[in-house]
Specification:
Blueprint (H helix, E strand, L loop, with lengths): L2 H7 L28 E5 L5 E3 L1 H6 L5 H13 L3 E4 L6 H11 L6 E4 L6 H5 E3 L1 H18 L1 H5 L16 E3 L1 H5 L8 E5 L8 H11 L1 E3 L1 H4 L5 E5 L7 E5 L2 E3 L5 E6 L7 H5 L2 E4 L5 H12 L1 H6 L1 H11 L6 H12 L11 H6 L8
Parallel strand pairs: 3-12, 3-13, 4-7, 7-12
Antiparallel strand pairs: 1-2, 5-6, 8-11, 9-10
Helix pairs in contact: 12-15
Length: 349
C-alpha cells in the first residue's frame, strides 16, 4: 500500500498511518486507559506497574461479595473465588486491600510448575557458592605472603546466608504484623495437583520453617522480603510465624476440582457474569458518565453477544475506551476495530 492508498483508510484518531513516512504523530497519542496507567512507584522487577490503588478503588462489589468477604475476614479463612475470565476475581483482593488500608497486595501467580516453596521463599545456593569461591580466591592472594612464611592461611569467614534468601509472597504474608496482609494466589486451578494439599498445613498453622536457616548455629539471620527487596527482616531459628492470618484470595477459572480437605478450609465465592446494571456501574467507575451515555448501545450489544459467546468485561472496557476516541469506531457489525477488541475467547476464535 502506498502513501495515497494508506491515507484513504487512515482516520483522525490514527497515530500509526501505515505509510512508512516518518512523522510526529506519537505526540498526539492520548493518555492511556486508567487501568493501563503506570504508577509512580517501580514494581519489584524495576519496571512501572499498573496503579494498584486505582484497581482497588473502582471495583464494584455486590452485597453477596461483601457478606462473603466479611465472613472470611472474621473466620481468618482463605477465600476461594471462582468465575469466568474478567469477572473481577483478582481485583477483589486489591479492593479489600484498598478499602481496609492493608497495603500492597502480595501476588503469587500460579503455573503448572509452581510448588509450595516458590510461595514461601527462594534460596540462591549457586550465588552463595560463587561468592564463597571468590572469597577463597581473594583470601588466598591476600595471604600468599603468610603462606610463604610457613603459616597456613586462615579459613575464609562464613558468608551470611540471609543475603541469598528472599521470602516469597506467601512467606512475606506470614511475617508477624499487627494487621493482616492481603495475599492473592492467582489461578490456583492451574497448579500441580499436589499444591492445594501442600498449602493446608500453612493455612492451618500460619507458620513455616526455612531449613537452610534452621541448620545454622547462629540463632538469627536477615532475609529479604517479597514486595521490597531492599527491606530485610529478622528470622529467628529459621521459623516464620504470623500474628495475624493474611486475608488470602485464591482465584480459579473452574477448570478443575479441588480436594475436600482443601475446600473445607476455604470459604467459596462464585462470581457470575456481571449483569447489565453492574456493567454500567463498572464502565462509569472506570471511564465516567460520558462513557456510559455514548457507549449505551455497545454495552447492550456486549450483553446480547455474551449470552452465546465467551467474552470478558475488560474487553468491553477496551471497546468503550476506543469508542470515546475521535473517530474511534461505532457499534455496527462492520466496525473492524471494535469487532477485533470484542473477539470471542472460545478456543479457535
Amino acid at each position: 500500500m502506498n502513501e495515497g492508498q494508506a491515507s484513504k483508510v487512515s482516520h483522525a484518531w490514527h497515530v500509526y498511518r501505515g505509510t512508512g513516512v516518518p512523522h510526529e504523530g506519537i505526540e498526539r497519542l492520548p493518555a492511556p486507559p486508567p487501568w493501563r496507567t503506570p504508577s509512580a512507584a517501580e514494581s519489584r522487577y524495576g519496571r512501572s506497574a499498573p496503579d494498584p490503588w486505582l484497581r482497588g478503588a473502582v471495583y464494584q462489589a455486590t452485597p453477596e461479595i461483601v457478606d462473603v468477604v466479611n465472613a472470611a475476614l472474621y473466620l481468618r479463612r482463605p477465600l476461594l473465588v471462582t468465575g469466568p475470565p474478567g469477572s473481577g476475581k483478582s481485583s477483589l483482593a486489591h479492593h479489600v486491600a484498598h478499602e481496609l488500608r492493608l497495603g500492597r497486595v502480595l501476588s503469587w501467580p500460579i503455573t503448572s510448575r509452581s510448588v509450595l516453596r516458590d510461595g514461601l521463599y527462594t534460596y540462591d545456593a549457586l550465588g552463595r557458592l560463587q561468592d564463597a569461591n571468590l572469597k577463597v580466591e581473594s583470601r588466598h592472594i591476600d595471604d600468599v605472603g603468610v603462606m610463604d612464611m610457613g603459616y597456613d592461611s586462615p579459613p575464609p569467614r562464613a558468608l551470611d546466608i540471609g543475603r541469598y534468601l528472599q521470602l516469597g509472597p506467601l512467606g512475606t504474608a506470614l511475617l508477624p504484623s499487627r494487621v493482616p496482609r492481603v495475599l492473592l494466589i492467582d489461578e490456583i486451578d492451574k497448579s500441580d495437583p499436589d499444591l492445594p494439599n501442600d498449602l493446608l498445613n500453612v493455612f492451618e498453622e500460619g507458620e513455616f520453617v526455612i531449613p537452610e536457616l534452621a541448620r545454622l548455629d547462629r540463632p538469627e539471620a536477615r532475609v529479604q522480603v517479597y514486595d521490597d527487596p531492599r527491606e530485610t527482616v529478622h528470622v529467628m531459628h529459621g521459623r516464620v510465624r504470623t500474628e495475624a492470618f493474611p486475608f488470602t484470595v485464591l482465584t480459579s477459572n473452574g477448570e478443575r476440582e479441588f480436594p475436600a480437605a482443601f475446600l473445607r478450609r476455604c470459604l467459596r465465592l462464585d462470581l457470575p457474569e456481571p449483569s447489565l446494571d453492574l456493567l454500567v456501574r463498572i464502565v462509569e467507575a472506570h471511564l465516567g458518565r460520558e462513557a456510559v451515555e455514548r457507549g449505551a448501545a455497545l454495552i447492550e450489544e456486549f450483553v446480547r453477544r455474551r449470552s452465546g459467546e465467551s467474552l470478558a468485561t475488560d474487553q468491553l472496557l477496551n471497546a468503550v475506551y476506543l469508542l470515546l476516541r475521535d473517530g474511534g469506531g461505532g457499534t455496527h457489525e462492520g466496525d473492524t476495530v471494535l469487532q477485533t477488541v470484542l473477539r470471542r475467547l472460545d478456543p479457535g476464535f
